[in-house]
Specification:
The complex is a heterodimer of chains A (114) and B (114). By secondary structure, chain A is mainly β. Chain A contains no helices and eleven strands. In chain A, strands 2, 4, 5, 9, 10 and 11 form a six-stranded mixed beta sheet that branches. The termini of chain A are far apart. In chain B, the strands form two sheets. In chain B, strands 2, 4, 5, 6, 9, 10 and 11 form a seven-stranded mixed beta sheet that branches. Chain B has a four-stranded antiparallel beta sheet with strand order 1-3-8-7, with no helix packed on it. In chain B, a hairpin with a 5-residue loop joins strand 4 and strand 5. Chain B is globular, with a radius of gyration of 13 Å. Classes of the chains: A mainly beta (114), B mainly beta (114). The interface between A and B is medium-sized, with 29 and 32 residues.
């Protein structure tokens, strides 16, 4: 049973417009949510995170929104640039007796057209 | 520069053969992780280690083994018991084991069966 889901496998956006990537989760015990960006044949790169006690975190062109009642988070990229084209993974952290465990969604491929 | 180094980038395994994937980090991070990524899917946790000489199984540990004899190194052995080893393997590390301390990834090793 997938605890973290990204229901859109791909998204295409025009350069300069807003990109919105969505992520849903089922476990209300997750305490942190993270977004990673991945280019082909490379490891994921950390982008931005948000604590479960907040509803918004912003870093430059990237903003993450968290709606705990809906168990939904989204990543907004404004303005989108061709270099943003990559696969984006959301991940949720659950701190338990065994430390930091990350659960990843399946990823969304973003294509930003010039 | 500090970072995580995985080697080799590509690896081929014969039937019945064990192979070992290397992961080295010079970030002075305590925690290290191994993930597997299959095409079109998210990352799944194989093993993780919070400190030297200690490690725990993740969600898909069967057919894999690890060791953590040094803080900098966390090699993964894919044994012959792993019947479907073809995948992209990612190593990660984090400074601690809290969700607020994001995991940083190497560039991965792609393992294929001959």
């Amino acid at each position: 049973d997938q605890q973290v889901k990204q229901n859109s496998p791909s998204l295409s956006v025009q350069e300069g417009r807003i990109s919105i990537l969505n992520c849903d989760y089922t476990n209300s015990m997750f305490d942190y949510f993270l977004w990673y960006k991945k280019y082909p044949a490379e490891g994921p790169t950390f982008l931005i995170s948000i604590s479960s006690i907040k509803d918004k975190n912003e870093d430059g062109r990237f903003t993450v929104f968290l709606n705990k009642s809906a168990k939904h988070l989204s990543l907004h990229i404004v303005p989108s640039q061709p270099g943003d084209s990559a696969v984006y993974f959301c991940a949720a952290s659950l701190f338990g007796n065994a430390g930091n465990m990350l659960t990843f969604g399946g990823g969304t491929r973003l294509m930003v057209k010039p | 520069d500090g970072g995580i180094t995985q080697s080799p980038k590509y690896l081929f395994r014969k039937e019945g053969q064990n192979v070992t994937l290397s992961c080295e980090q010079n970030l002075n991070h305590d925690a290290m992780y191994w993930y597997r990524q299959d095409p079109g899917q998210g990352l799944r946790l194989i093993y993780y280690s919070q400190i030297v000489n200690d490690f725990q199984k993740g969600d898909i540990a069967e057919g894999y083994s690890v060791s953590r004899e040094k803080k900098e190194s966390f090699p993964l052995t894919v044994t012959s018991a792993q019947k479907n080893p073809t995948a992209f393997y990612l190593c990660a590390s984090s400074i601690g084991d809290r969700g607020s301390q994001p995991q940083h990834f190497g560039d991965g090793t792609r393992l294929s069966i001959l």
